[in-house]
Here is the input.
Amino acid sequence: MPGPFDAPDPRAVPVRLPRPSRLDAPLEAPHPKMAEALETLGLRTVGDLLMHLPRERRVARQIAELQPGEQANVLVEVRSIRSRPVRRRGMKPLVEATVADQTGVMKVVFFNQPWLERRYRPGTRLALYGKYDGRNSFKVSTHSETTDVGAAVEGVAHYPASEGITSTQIAELVRAHRDAIADVIEPLPARLRAAERLPDRQAALADMHFGGGEGGRRRLAFDELLATQLLFARRRARHAAIEAPALDGPRTLTERWLREALPFAPTGDQAAAMDEIEADLARPRPMQRLLMGEVGSGKTVVALFALLRAVEHGMQGALMAPTETLAEQHFATLQRLLGGEVVPAALLTGSTAAARRADILGKLASGELSLVVGTHALIEPAVVFDRLAVAVIDEQHRFGVRQRTALDGKGPGDLVPHVLHMTATPIPRTMRLLEFGDLDHTAIHELPGGRKPIQTFVASTDRERARAYERIREELRAGRQAFVVCPLVEESEQLQARAATAEYERLKATELADFDVVLLHGQMRPKAKQEAMQEFAAGGADVLVATSVIEVGIDVPNATVMLVENAERYGISQLHQLRGRIGRGGHASVCILFGPKESPRLRALAEHSDGFRLAEIDLELRREGELVGTRQSGYGEFAVARLPEDEPLLERARARAAAILEADPDLLAPEHALLADALRERYGAAELDLPIPA
Here is the structure.
């Protein structure tokens, strides 16, 4: 049963709002197949149905405007209708009707629905969607009765459907329960609605289902966006009330490291990021900052600076990565970047041997170990820090919310550690306002000097594939190295490992038979993975055939070619990360994406190298997943809001959320009672930490 802010998180502990019986009434279906389809769509009650909003509204065309082969929506009146037998055995009779609008007359055909002859009597107005075949005949895909006088201009609603129920049938159910909209609770204060010129929620729902939709859509989108901004503001305020160690002493170790041990001078963006982080760490309020930047922009150097600020205050630092491979790479990178500085550090993952693990745990608990790099193993209850002051979480979007917050309990005494979140995926402004609304942000745009742009091509034909392998061989003969990334068959590391192994064997026997080829995937034993990477990094192998395990963290300046099989199976950000494994030396590099040229994702990669622009395109194309709660996959939480188009509305919601909580931090005022209840139902009482009124 959805709350005033749509469907709640099923794992939350909801606070039920008092509901009129019409919204709580079970949704009845005329036959079992439709009932099963409604269950699949999550439509169990009348309230669920009313919150199942149209995906789009198709503007109606006039009969005289239709072109042969055109898929179109038309609004017509039935002039005559009859059923016609079909000669093929087992086929139900066709139903043919003559329909008209003010511009013309045409024949329409309904397949396998003989009962429509009795239902659509002459004079019935219909909304039809189908294909005009050019012979004054229209083959119907979906259909429904309509009385909407504005539908010709505004369009007809089309609902997300499922096998067993059509958009037309859902529309019929909505019409049958239209009166129940009057029982929907209004959560927003009247003054806020007036200030934002928003209709009430009942009118908004009616508009979405039966009207033009845009006025109602704006109101319901505002509800969704306001809910997320109130949640983030509550999180931020709650975190601000907690104390962290104030690392406000002078730079001693860090200054010496920057001046003498670091093998290169930081870029301007890196230096600015270090200054921002240093200011955060000096305060007793825990840092919550997102460090994002271009592929190869040097975020790890900035992270190490933050960790060393903890060390020079006699505290500890931890870096947590989502995979063992990435953790191993980070540990090797940190050791290289430390240069001659002697800082006790260790690597802790699920594969760490028992004796070594016990030694690391003992030294972390005693404070003898200053730095630790690891996976989620770092947040296990057995891992106890003596005085953890700074935690860096890399590729933070791969960790669940509970995993990321578990580090808070690892701080010294009643203090929590400062946390620096890192992502190699540039985050567009809209996402920063949404998914990371409770974090401060630092962006690194500047790349180290000497980098050359990477050329990117999409290869679709056999001829293009042959040329791609020839280009690889040309680079290898010139003493360079290459990556071959195997397809993401599905979300299974085991299946992807099999695909990589098969491609590895094929390439050794065919296109790359004259070169040294090694294999790397996530299912290999840690020692085997390490040996493969070391061999490739040292130049002992010409080609590394790998899965997307190489997406982040690998730095081989001599690698100048990347070939990605079935590239259309990857997202834009993942492809951009993969591409970032080349172009790290002084040689020109090329990335070849095997996949369809019509793919908008692949076209974006071929046309753009700026990760921030690609992130914007990704946001426009993706729009699915969840922003808050424990699922971390994007934007599907929003049934109505359209991002980034609705960014101005998001700004309004953000400002309103700040004003509401400034005047009433715990939402205890009578005018906010229903708003607080709606938020509890959406996110759960524990997530919001709102007091329950007496």
User: Anything to note?
Assistant: The longest helix spans residues 214-240. The first strand starts at residue 56 and ends at 58. Residues 471 and 537 are 21 Å apart (CA to CA).
